[in-house]
Amino acid sequence: MSFIDRHLGPRDTDLESMLSTVGYDSLGDLVDAVVPSSIRIDSALNLPEALSERDAQEKLAGYASQNIVKAQMIGAGYYDAITPPVLRRNILEAPGWYTSYTPYQAEISQGRLEALLNFQNTVMELTGLEVANASLLDESTAVAEAATMMKRSNRKVKNGKFAIDSRCLPQTLSVVRGRAEALGIDFVVTDFADGLPEGDLFGIILAYPGHDGEVRDIKPLVDEAKERNALVTVNADLLALTLLKSPGEMGADIVVGNTQRFGLPLWYGGPHAAYMAVHSGQQRNMPGRLVGVSQDATGRPGYRLALQTREQHIRREKATSNICTAQALLAITAGAYAVYHGPEGLKKIAETLHENASRVAVALSGAGLKLVHESFFDTVAFDVDGKADEYVKKASDAGINIRKINDDRISISVGESHDDTVLTALVEAFGGKLPESGKYEIASDLLRTDEYMQHPVFHLYRSETSMMRYLRQLSDKDLALDRTMIPLGSCTMKLNAAAEMEPISWPEFATIHPLAPADQTKGWKSLIDELSDWLVAITGYDAISLQPNSGASGEYAGLRAIRAYHEDNGDTQRSIVLIPMSAHGTNAASAALAGLDVAGVATAEDGSIDVEDLKAKIEKYGDKIAGIMITYPSTHGVFEDKVVEVCKLVHEAGGQVYVDGANLNAQMGLAQPGQFGGDVSHLNLHKTFSIPHGGGGPGVGPVAVGAHLEKYLPGDGYLANEEGKLEGAPLPISQAMFGSAGVLPITWMYIAMSGAEGLKSASEYAILNANYIARELGEKFPVLYTGPGGLVAHECILDLRELTAQSGVTAEDVCKRLMDYGFHAPTLAFPVPGTLMVEPTESESKAELDRFITAMSTIFDEIKYVADGNISVEDSVLRNAPHTVEVVSADEWDRKYPRSEAAFPVPSLHRNKYFTPIGRIDGANGDRNFVCECPPMEAFDIEVTEAS
């Protein structure tokens, strides 16, 4: 069988039955009825013939072989780290972890929530602050988030500027510059050698250590900032903080950085989990997700995502961040790395790195190189009198990559796997001899003296056996795609095939530094160029950037391109983006971050854009219109037949058309946004193109554009000058030139194995599955929006509002009850409160669809039982769901329905039953009594044993 035959859920034998249910004789007839003829393409996509799994991997292995693996001592934000095999196999390569969704439904996410809380607690302990989030996208954007957070949080300095350390990474300076300029925030780049710059400062950003390795005492700068009412952000190396005095102890308000060196591969730049920590009381201002502790209906402690009112789909244009996708899978891995090593293990790694760097410093100083700084952690810099290229080549000839800072200066960053063989080869290449020990020590007044990471979780799992079982225990608590369909509308939880996933662990991809010379990265370039060409062919655009490392980042990049295009044309007054009221909330948030204003466009009764209101808005705003953002098919799950007219109206008004690519899974091979009127789109590779969600990230959101916008695609931040400026290219929006490159082989494999016909089939079967569910459930749960013939696109919205009015049973009750049936809930209350949005994807079989239909039909009967007055909603099986094994096996049972109804509402559950580890979580209690730290292990009935 071909890959696409394995990828698609329904079998040929199911097709006739499903089409009969929907009311069509053929799949082609159904698609013709669903997708408007005005946007259909009349030829196959320009893609190569589909390859088998084996042939695709062989071709990809050929690309991998073109990459040259060397010892990576470049540093500059990316460091050699060792991924313990127990973590690689049991997290990064385990479908129970990588196929899970963002933990919005806490009861079926307790494992990944606990793992993320371990990450948060690691960050809190090492930074010395009380609250940390569950990851950000990368280090540079985390610093940018901190800058804007200081701006809105400092009530003592309303205006003013912020000052950023010139010792921050060049990528960071350029990303921060781009964000600040878009928002009109004043700032200055300085090395702080003479203290703080003059003028009103609402905040400062300090590097600790600097990009060239120097460790200096930042306490005087922190104190001076406090005296001038400025907030302080410290951009810190988290591993260095196992040795260095914590920023929190020195008075920092915010600490940000990266956790890549906590067991994550280099991956040519990403994905890696950034972090942010703040003082208690600032959590409501902090971007990103936050895991906290509450309790369930029985009083049992339980984890949940806290303070969800900060989610950007609620705040829209008032959002202070457009963070949506984070880096959950990578944060989970980094947190597990901290758990596995514990504080003493992490400290030993850090001490070894520093000692080895000191040995290199002694050896090369003896060989005639001038050591720039005697105070450092793991990175040493040398002045080489215009011979930087010569030394870089000597190192390369010895199998080692080092960093050229400029013509006169090099630096060397020692990593976890760099043993004496590597160190000897390096120093001998420069004419030195490696000593037994170094002589450079970190000053005692810079060393931390407090204890950290004392919670039992950081001391229990030292053996591989215990760690393996702990990770299995956590995974078993969760529902992921390896157990069940995840019918989340707008999130496209499709198959992440094993053949697609395997290559990301290949050393030829995983160990390549993003700043390695071009002659060592030919394989990466071939893969990226070919994938870019394929995505351009699929979307109908002319160019693409793979830099955005989330869908929201892609939105931001696309809107920045639109703004720059208008400014270059002298249309600086074009500052308004029209956004339908039904759009994803990140659309409005991204527009705000790009420095654009938002005007809403009404939604018609059928869920489409209200064209008359659009015309009125065009008349009102005229030449102030920068463009429109539309989601297609619509957020309501319908192909709007007026989309071509909408695009034409905006173009005639001088605006650009942004087509949100979140729903591209219904269009592949059928329509191309770049051809029916779009000027720019972002794509969600973690939705349409099979990169797994990983519990809430990694995400990849490439931005595709027409030829007129190509020159506005983001540039390479590493090439920025000391002011963070780029010559001849727009500023970057992410840290690495190719964003989360490490997961691009997944999408390459998906497209290579699917081919043009396979991608088209994926869209067709996604449409079939959605309409099958809509027809089977429509009489019980009315489908809110449909197109011609009562059809939907690739998802449908089930309307529960009338049932709620009759019974008091809410859509949330249905979500919780579905857990008893072994299902992840559909998307709750978006885009319409009181509804459920269902997207089955093309990967689910008829049997799984029928299982879901049976569950929902049985739940309908349960709702009617309440509506008919047989039981109160408070006493019902729905309001008390989900039911834990502890509840249904208790000696006493006082509920007004039988145990069997609670636990086994349909016969199939006797063969395959999942129990939630906790009952219904009390989110409000957790937000009122916010707890970010781990509760005692005893609270979760986990035996605390002594660690080795």
UniProtKB/TrEMBL annotation:
<comment type="similarity">
    <text>Belongs to the GcvP family.</text>
</comment>
<feature type="modified residue" description="N6-(pyridoxal phosphate)lysine">
    <location>
        <position position="687"/>
    </location>
</feature>
<keyword id="KW-0663">Pyridoxal phosphate</keyword>
<dbReference type="Pfam" id="PF21478">
    <property type="entry name" value="GcvP2_C"/>
</dbReference>
<dbReference type="GO" id="GO:0005960">
    <property type="term" value="C:glycine cleavage complex"/>
</dbReference>
<dbReference type="Pfam" id="PF02347">
    <property type="entry name" value="GDC-P"/>
</dbReference>
<feature type="domain" description="Glycine cleavage system P-protein N-terminal">
    <location>
        <begin position="5"/>
        <end position="430"/>
    </location>
</feature>
<dbReference type="InterPro" id="IPR049315">
    <property type="entry name" value="GDC-P_N"/>
</dbReference>
<dbReference type="GO" id="GO:0005829">
    <property type="term" value="C:cytosol"/>
</dbReference>
<comment type="function">
    <text>The glycine cleavage system catalyzes the degradation of glycine. The P protein binds the alpha-amino group of glycine through its pyridoxal phosphate cofactor; CO(2) is released and the remaining methylamine moiety is then transferred to the lipoamide cofactor of the H protein.</text>
</comment>
<dbReference type="InterPro" id="IPR049316">
    <property type="entry name" value="GDC-P_C"/>
</dbReference>
<dbReference type="InterPro" id="IPR020581">
    <property type="entry name" value="GDC_P"/>
</dbReference>
<dbReference type="GO" id="GO:0019464">
    <property type="term" value="P:glycine decarboxylation via glycine cleavage system"/>
</dbReference>
<dbReference type="GO" id="GO:0030170">
    <property type="term" value="F:pyridoxal phosphate binding"/>
</dbReference>
<dbReference type="InterPro" id="IPR015424">
    <property type="entry name" value="PyrdxlP-dep_Trfase"/>
</dbReference>
<protein>
    <recommendedName>
        <fullName>Glycine dehydrogenase (decarboxylating)</fullName>
        <ecNumber>1.4.4.2</ecNumber>
    </recommendedName>
</protein>
<keyword id="KW-0560">Oxidoreductase</keyword>
<feature type="domain" description="Glycine dehydrogenase C-terminal">
    <location>
        <begin position="762"/>
        <end position="883"/>
    </location>
</feature>
<feature type="domain" description="Glycine cleavage system P-protein N-terminal">
    <location>
        <begin position="463"/>
        <end position="715"/>
    </location>
</feature>
<dbReference type="InterPro" id="IPR015422">
    <property type="entry name" value="PyrdxlP-dep_Trfase_small"/>
</dbReference>
<comment type="subunit">
    <text>The glycine cleavage system is composed of four proteins: P, T, L and H.</text>
</comment>
<dbReference type="InterPro" id="IPR015421">
    <property type="entry name" value="PyrdxlP-dep_Trfase_major"/>
</dbReference>
<dbReference type="GO" id="GO:0016594">
    <property type="term" value="F:glycine binding"/>
</dbReference>
<dbReference type="GO" id="GO:0004375">
    <property type="term" value="F:glycine dehydrogenase (decarboxylating) activity"/>
</dbReference>
<dbReference type="InterPro" id="IPR003437">
    <property type="entry name" value="GcvP"/>
</dbReference>
